[in-house]
Amino acid sequence: MNQEVLALVEKGEMLPLMEEFYTIQGEGFHKGTAAYFVRIGGCDVGCHWCDVKESWNAKLHPPTEISKIVENAKKYSDTIVVTGGEPLTWDMTALTSQLKAVGLQVHIETSGAYKLTGVWDWICLSPKKMKLPTQEVYDKADELKMIIYNRDDFRFAEEQAAKVNKNCILYLQPEWSKRDKVVPEIVDYVMANPKWKVSLQTHKYLNIP
Asked: Lyase among the record's keywords (predicted)?
């Protein structure tokens, strides 16, 4: 990457774009709705069960002008979901400004581990034990999505729920490879603790991206 391109990436005027696609949101509050996903490369949070590990190395994904991302996005949907990787690795200010300027709703899926940049209509926070969210993301999250891989994750989920704002919607979601084991545990937990809701990766049941 030459110095000129590197400078544009650091300013968020170009971003390492892994993929972009139009599909149905499969998880959380907006499940079942059509959305255009923009997956940004780069993540050092390192979840061992991550199902998009190919997103971790930003150098594998071409720096792309955000004007091109916006041009593609506005063709498909009025809801854009920025995901990763960890999108907050990069400055999201320019991308969200341009998406909002053409009248789009802009959502983010983030671990919250880095400074919150950009203007968002919906923030889905999914904290990870290896690198905890910043206080600003806790304060502004619209939904908290906790991935349940083992029983200790229920403890971690409660710790995280105590840190978010009072209007944040709380979800427990089974890690896909462990779903047969943890779904019954999640069901029992939500019935005993009804402040939580169950989230499923419905796109995987629908066999869509």
From this structure: yes
Regarding the domain delimited by 3-205, which CATH topology (the fold level of the hierarchy) does it fall under? TIM Barrel (3.20.20)
Point out the annotated binding site: 24-26, 39, 43, 47, 49-51, 83, 85, 126-128, 209
Residues annotated within a binding site for substrate: 24-26, 39, 83, 209
| Domain spans of the chain, in order of start | 3-205
Residue ranges at the known binding site for S-adenosyl-L-methionine: 49-51, 85, 126-128
Q: Is the pTM of this model over 0.90?
A: yes
What is the tens place of the pLDDT at every residue in 156-175? 999 999 999 999 999 999 99
Give the DSSP H or E segment for 124. strand 122-125
